[in-house]
Amino acid sequence: MHPTLVFDIETIPDLTGFAAVNGIDIGSLPHAELTEMALLARRQKTGSDFMPHHLHRIVAISCTLRSGSTLKAWSLGDPDSSEAELIQQFYDCIEHHTPQLVSWNGSGFDLPVLHYRALIHGIAAARYWDWGDDDKDFKWNSYLGRYHTRHLDLMDVLAMYQPRANAPLDDMAKLCGFPGKLGMDGSQVLGAFQRGEINAIRNYCETDAMNTWLVYLRFQKMRGTLSDAAYTAEIELARSTLTQHSAPHWQAFLAAWA
Predict the structure, then answer these.
(1) Which of 188, 206, 164 is nearest to 63 (CA)?
(2) Burial label, 252 (beta-carbon count in 10 A; 0-12, 13-18, 19+)
(3) Which of 48, 83, 171, 185 maximizes the CB count within 10 A of its CB?
(4) Cβ-defined contacts of 243-252 (< 8 Å, 24+)
(5) How would you label 47-75 residue by residue, b for 16+ Cβ within 10 Å and e otherwise?
(6) Domain spans of the chain?
């Protein structure tokens, strides 16, 4: 089986970046005040406090990798890893495996954020950015083409590339009989980070990647790429893999899946 890498990121506002682009002396303001200033400025401009892509700081990248006979679910780096280290590990994984990438809204959020943040940190990602200059196969199927499948944004494809038809991952996972989001959602990540709960963020991100993988399996069954027997085997592999994890978030995931 060709390696398949499902990924998800979690972010918080980049306060240092916000201060830099707005000419604010970051040393003159308390952290909480700067946070509120950044969110307020965004609300006044757009009606939402959701920051623009380039001002999202990545605090977690989680993956589900199906390769050979194994399935692996984990978060890149460790709780103390810098943003640059997390991003470099993500692209190193692509460099090593050249996987099929799968995401939920990856084209609309995760990948643009990764692009901007990689540029800021000077990250090398030659394989990912190949448009066919080095590998001719990438000319017609690169990670960067919206209608190419080397990166499959499952939400975008299911919605027929129509934003008004987009569906939340949590809803679709639950409708398919999978656990959906557990413990928190994206709107709670900043608060959790401010409380020092980085492990909880990483755990949440991991379950999002696993939900995406399970929905992807259902998609592949719908396409006829997986037979009923093959689909059942993949689902059982996911269950057995998670059973081997003693971490509470995976035990809660399995309990919700029961």
Answers:
(1) 206
(2) middle
(3) 83
(4) 245/73, 247/203, 249/182, 249/183, 249/203, 249/204, 249/206, 249/207, 250/73, 250/207, 252/182, 252/183
(5) eebebbbebbbbbbbbbbbbeeeebebeb
(6) 4-252
- Check: CB of residue 205 under 8 Å from CB of residue 181: no
**4-252, what's its fold?**
Nucleotidyltransferase; domain 5 (3.30.420)
Look at residue 151 and give its three-state secondary structure. strand
What are 148's two structure tokens?
């190419």
Non-local (6+) Cβ contacts of 218 within 8 A are 176, 231
Question: Which residue in 33, 1, 35 sits closest to 18, CA to CA?
Answer: 35
Strands of the 70-75 sheet, one edge to the other: 70-75, 56-67, 4-13, 100-103, 151-153
Q: What is the identity of the amino acid at 142?
A: S
At residue 1 the predicted structure's pLDDT band, cuts being 50, 70 and 90, is low
Tens of pLDDT, residues 159-180: 999 999 999 999 999 999 999 9
Instruction: Tell me the pLDDT tens digit for each residue of 20-74.
Output: 998 888 777 777 788 888 888 888 888 888 899 999 999 999 999 999 999 999 9
Distance separating the N- and C-terminal Cα atoms of the chain: 28
Average pLDDT over residues 179-206: 92
